[in-house]
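Pilot study result, target chain (306 residues):
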Amino acid sequence: MKGQILKILRKENEVVSGEMLSSELGITRVSIWKHIRRLRESGYSIIGTPKGYRLINSPDIPFSWEFPERESQIHYFSEVTSTMDVAKDLARKGCPDFTVVVAGRQKKGRGRLKRIWFSSEGGLYFTIVLRPKISPVVSFKINFSASLVLAQILRNMFGIKAMVKWPNDILVDGKKISGMLSEMEAEADMITFLNIGLGINVNNDPTSEEPMADSLKKVLGREISKKEILARYLEEFEKRLNNVTLDNVISEWKQYTLTLNRYVKIVANHEVSEGFAIDVDENGALVLGLEDGSTKRVIYGDCFHT
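Predicted structure:
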């Protein structure tokens, strides 16, 4: 109902009477007043006059009602330990495919290899619960799709040269804008759920903790709408999963990468690999050319461009 009230107020862009809202939405004027009060408590500036209500401005917070077609799928929290933790709990309890957990802040945001993802106010942090009908052995293609879609929409929305770094970071001018984490549970050869978590530096400043990171606000010199990025990403990612084959995702991903044809270092839990990045193979592994002329496939780890 909050979403429907906002839709009417935004459409009219002037004072709308409580009587009109009540009639159009089929609820009492008292109920309208209660919803307006809750919207104000959530940060919406709505003035009340003897003639009705007018929306002055809205907070850039991805509340579920801001996505009318997805409202039942989106769970917004002002603060959580980690969106991945909440999503895992929902997935194990049977939440539907494409459930989304979004947070304003994460107290214990996680990156790859159990590293901390600094999650200050102003960033966009969310996890998508997927239940793809594919074998676990090809689940990596969804990870590559997730980072590819983000690079494409950042380019299209803001005209910036967003690039992917193996396996799934997004860089702009060589600095990290976004990182991704995935977690999967499976039984036999069927995926139970695959959770894709993304942290995007939008209006926050991550440089005090990560000097080689950057944010969209710093790159573009202005505030960016987190709601618009999330809406666009969910739309494009879902469209790709539903309508585009995963067969060619690696070759498409390679068109946007900065990792190939350079010397790199890959740090995993108990191993460090260094070499010239020759290719990303059909299984998503990074192929390194070593000094002795041999090659090595690396399937997991943090990649450092040198």
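One observation from the pilot: Residues 263-305 form a domain with the SH3 type barrels. fold (CATH 2.30.30.100). A full batch analysis is planned for the follow-on phase.
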